[in-house]
Every structure is written in C-alpha cells, then in structure tokens.
Amino acid sequence: MKKLINQLKEKDNIIVCILFFLISLGISLNIYLEASDEIWNFQNVYKMYNGFKIYEEVNVIITPLFFWIGEAIFHIFGANLCVFRFSNCIIMTILFLYTYKLFKKLHLPKSISLLAVFLMILQQFFLIIRICFNYNTMALLFFVMGVYYLIHEKTKEKIYIQAIITILIIITKQNIGIYYLLGNIIYLCISRNSSKAKIKKTLQYMSVILVGGSVFITYLIWDNNLWNFFNYTFGGTLEFADENLIFDISGITFMVSVMIINIVTSVLFIKKKLVSEAKIENIKILFIFSTMLSILCYPIFNWTHIILGTYLIIVNIIYIAYILLKDFKQGIQKIVKIIDGIMIVAMVAFSGFNMYTWIYMITNDNYPYSWEDPFFGGMMGKEDFEENEKMIQYIEKNEKNVIVLSNRAGLYMIPLKRNNGDFDLPFKGNLGIDGEEGLIEKVDNMEETQFLIYQNEDEGIYQESEKVKEYVKNTKKYIGEIAGFEIYE
User: Fold this and answer.
1) How far is the C-alpha of 358 from the C-alpha of 21, rounded, in Å?
2) From CA 401, how far away is CA 489, in angstroms rounded?
3) CA–CA separation, 131 and 305 (whole Å)
4) CB-based contacts of 191, cutoff 8 Å, min separation 6
5) Which residues contact 43 (CB under 8 A, 6 or more apart)?
6) What three-state secondary structure class fits 206?
7) Under a CB-based contact definition with an 8 Å cutoff, are residues 46 and 373 in contact?
8) Helix crossing, 2-10 with 12-29: angle to 10°?
9) How much is the pTM?
10) How far apart are CA 277 and CA 285, in angstroms?
11) What does the DSSP 8-state code read for residue 52?
C-alpha cells in the first residue's frame, strides 16, 4: 500500500488531471440553452462547419485559431452543443492542470498547489467553467502556459518557446496576444542581461513573431480574405470600445482590490528584496504578466472578463501569501490536506450531480433533440422550446427572407443552417469599418425581406445596435407580431 501511495504521489499530474476533468465535466454540460456567448461562438463555428467562410461571410471580430479548432472538432466528433461543451471541459482541464503545475514550479507543496487551484475554480462559484468553450479561455490557457515555461527556465530555446506561444495567443485573440507580447518585451528589458544581450534576445523574439505573422498574412492573401480579416478584426475596434463600455460595481470593486494588493505586495518584495533573488524573479514575472492580462477586461468590466483578467493576479497573491506564511508551512500543510480531501469530495459530488441532471434530461422521452441536431446536449424548458419551434417554422416557411435583428438570432438560424452575415450578430463593434451606418445601408438595399425585432427591451443586450433597430421601425411597415417579436417589412 505504501508503495502504491508513493507511486500515486509521483504521478500526481495525471491524478489531478483526471480530477479536474471530473470537476469540469458535469458543470460544462449542465447549462441552460439561451442567447449568450456560448450560442454566439457556437453559431460562428457551426456556420464554418456548414461551408460559410470566416470573415467573408461570418462577422467574426477575433483572430481565427479558436474557430479553426472548433470547426475541426465538429468535423471529427460531430457538430452539436454536447461536443462544444465537452471541448470546454478539455480546455478547462488543461488550464487547471497548468495552473497546478505553475504553483508547483513556484515551489508550493502539492497539497497547497491543489487547494489554490480549487479556490480559483470556486471563485464566483465555477463561473470560469460556465463561460463555456470560448476564445478568451483558450487565450488564457496559452497565457498561463507561457508564464509556466518562463518561470525558472534557463534553456537557450526559452526565447523561441515564448515567441511561439505569443503567436498562438495572437491568432487566438489579437488583443490578448499583444498584451502578452508587451509583457515579454518589458521582461526582457528589465532582465539582468547586458544591453547587448537584451537587444539580441528581443530581436530573436520579434523575428520569430514576424515570420509567423508573415505566414498568416500570406495565407489570408492566398485565401482572398485579407481585407475581410482586417475589416472585422480591426475595423470596428473604436466603435466596440466607445459603445460597449460597461461596469459591474461588485466586479470592479473586486478587481481594484486585488490589483492594489498585487501592486503593493509585489513592489514591496521587489524593491525591499525581502526574499531570495529566485523568488523576486518569480514575482517580477507574475507581476508583469498579471498586469498585462488584466487589460483584457476593457471595455467590458463584467464578472466574466474580470475573472479571466485577474487570473494571474490571484496566482501571484497566493504565491506571495505562501511566502509570508513560510514559518507556518508544516502546520498549514496538515490542515490543507484535510481541506483538499473535503474539497475533492464536495466538488466531484457537485459535478456528478450536474452530470446526473444533464443525463436525466437528455435521455428523457420528451427530450426534443437527437445527436444530429445542433442543439443536442442543450437544455430548454418546454415553453421556450415551443416558442423556438414556432419561430423556426415561421422563418422556414416564409416566402420572404427573414432577418432576426437580435442577439437571439442564433437560436433560430442555427437549426435552419442559415447565414445572414452581420444581421445574425448585430452588435456594435461587430460590424466592420462601416459600423452601424453600414448595416443601415444593407437594410436599405434588401428587398423581399422581413425584419423581426424583439419587443422586450429588458431581455435585450447592451451590445445590440439600437440605432439600426430604430431605423427599421421608422422606415419599414409594421405587419404584426410573433413569439415576442415585432415584424416589419
């Protein structure tokens, strides 16, 4: 038995990987089907799976790696929400595993490293898992991997590994990639190397990124998609920043609090040299990259973005707290092991309950979807499902083209495998360089078309273009209502 326990301790990465998978699985799958980030991302990937071209026909405003990977997964495993959510479970498992490995690389004991990850998962009650399969979480995963490979690495290949990871982040989400790139440049500039060595390493780093960028641009040119790419990923940037600025007071309070703690403690440890050079170096890395990552919250300061943006700040605070409590390590570890055991049982049980609920729902005789349906795996109440079906049938049987000018469009267009381009996600900042005026011009040029506008403004979303909706109401003929939508043509 003792030998088995020792072997398990040596294989802890495998064990915690399985554990994180079990914790993520039930929570990833048991999510209500509604108009949200998940549906909007699923919609874009599903369009690509059905032959529509990213940027040219699908108004994606993010660099394409997430969508390419999503499309490939659909072709291999099937195109439905179940597969999409299972993919989220895989991403979460790898993210938590690398976070655990990062804590261990910072020389935290395994038991404390595990508890630290548990606390980060529980922050806002599993919100990071419920964000669902998303380019933000994929970029965060690469970000954490990059910091992991930067800590205590002395190999000559380190600079090239950082460049490759930077490229991966940039083509997953461009702004987060730029923040990571800036973090690396700042770190190189403040390193203890000579000026000549700093310049050499920076040039090596940037040269790999420029080569990668050139390959990517060449591909876009070959694919006749360069203008469409720049139009959507950069053309609406100012409109997105100006029109979508929001603040969640509780989230902002949390973010400001942890940022102040991060700044004060990091600067104090670095300036006063309170610990060894190795620990100071770790704090420098975590401080630089956690600060750069926090910028991703702008301009949408809601809990989702704040949890992602403060991820590495929490890592750094836990690391510093551990250093401060070094005299109590032995006593703490005994308590932590007990807490770890309780947390494992509770979190796996909670995920298991979610898994049971999900399985019960999808195996019920009244469950409306089969594996071939895109919404298989998603749960929807009977009333919402009937309303959805009513809309789908109305659109399908209508002799005119139907545009659902709402964030809810994906709920109807996905099952119909239809693509209305910008109209399927009419958000400010998602409309390219022409913005809202460009979408109004498209409205003017459309013939034999009905526009459906959701009546309940309280259920709308701040990103929707009210200007375009008002234009339709003022210039088109009102002809009736269906399932909560006003119909204009």
Assistant:
1) 16
2) 10
3) 10
4) 198
5) 409, 410, 413, 414, 424, 425
6) helix
7) no
8) 70
9) 0.95
10) 12
11) P
Q: Which of 463, 477, 398, 483 is nearest to 59 (CA)?
A: 463
Whole-angstrom distance, CA of residue 378 vs CA of residue 480: 30
Instruction: Note the pLDDT tens digit of each residue in 315-364.
Output: 999 999 999 887 666 667 788 999 999 999 999 999 999 999 999 999 99
For the four alpha carbons of 29, 31, 33 and 35, in that order, the dihedral sign comes to negative
How many residues does this entry show for the chain?
489
CA gap 362, 340 in Å, rounded: 33
Residue 454, helix vs strand vs coil: strand
By CB atoms closer than 10 A (0-12, 13-18, 19+), residue 48 is buried
Strand 478-482 and strand 485-488: the pairing is: antiparallel
For residues 461 and 36, give the distance between their C-alpha atoms in angstroms, rounded to a whole number: 10
Nearest C-alpha neighbor of 426 from the set 405, 410, 447: 405
Q: What is the DSSP letter of 370?
A: -
**Residue 415: HSE in the Cβ half-sphere, 13 Å Cα cutoff:** 21
In whole angstroms, give the CA distance from residue 196 to residue 182. Answer: 19
Q: Which amino acid is at 86?
A: F
- Which residues are paired to 32 by β-bridges? 379
Beta carbons of 278 and 292 less than 8 angstroms apart: no
Task: Specify which residues 58 forms β-bridges with.
Answer: 54
DSSP string for 118-142: HHHHHTTTTHHHHT-S-HHHHHHHH
Q: How many CB atoms lie within 10 A of CB 332?
A: 18
Condensed to tens digits (0 to 9), the pLDDT of residues 368-410 reads: 999 999 999 999 888 889 999 999 999 999 999 999 999 999 9
Q: How many CA atoms lie within 13 A of 234 on its CB side?
A: 6
Cα 358 from Cα 20, distance rounded (Å) = 19
Residue range 297-313: mean pLDDT, rounded: 95
Amino acid at 34: E
Query: pLDDT-derived band of residue 424, with 50, 70 and 90 as boundaries?
Result: very high
Cβ neighbours for 72, distance < 8 A, ≥ 6 positions apart: none
Question: Two tokens at 193?
Answer: 């190397």
DSSP secondary structure code for residue 403 in this structure: E
Phi and psi angles of residue 332, each rounded to the nearest 5 degrees, phi first:
-65, -45
pLDDT at 1: 47
From the list 415, 416, 482, the residue with the least C-alpha distance to 451 is 482
CA distance 238 to 433: 9
The half-sphere exposure of 409 on its side-chain side, counting CA atoms within 13 A, is 26
Q: Are 100 and 117 in contact (CB under 8 A)?
A: yes
The answer to whether 212 and 262 are in contact (CB under 8 A) is no
Residue 300: phi, psi to the nearest 5? -100, 90
Chain segment 140-161, per-residue pLDDT in tens: 999 999 999 999 877 778 999 9
